[in-house]
Amino acid sequence: MLLGLVSSSGLLREMVPASAYEYNRKRIQALLSGRDTLSYRVDNAIRRVQDLALQTVLQDIRVLQGT
Length: 67
Prior knowledge:
By secondary structure, the chain is mostly helical. It has one domain (2-65). The protein has four helices and no strands. The chain has helices at 2-8, 12-15, 18-32, 44-65. The radius of gyration is 12 Å and the shape is globular.
C-alpha cells in the first residue's frame, strides 16, 4: 500500500533504487488490478482483512488520480 501511495504522489523514482523501479512499478500495477504478485502465504482470515484494506486504499488512490 505504501508503494501505491508513493507512486500516486509521483515520488516512486526518488524513493526506490533505479534497479528496482520497474519491478516496483509492475507490482503496483498488479496490486491496483487486484493481484498480489508475491502470493505470500498468509492465514485466510488475515488475507481477507489485508485484501480489504489494500483494495480500499488503492481505490482511494485511483479516485485521487482521477482514473
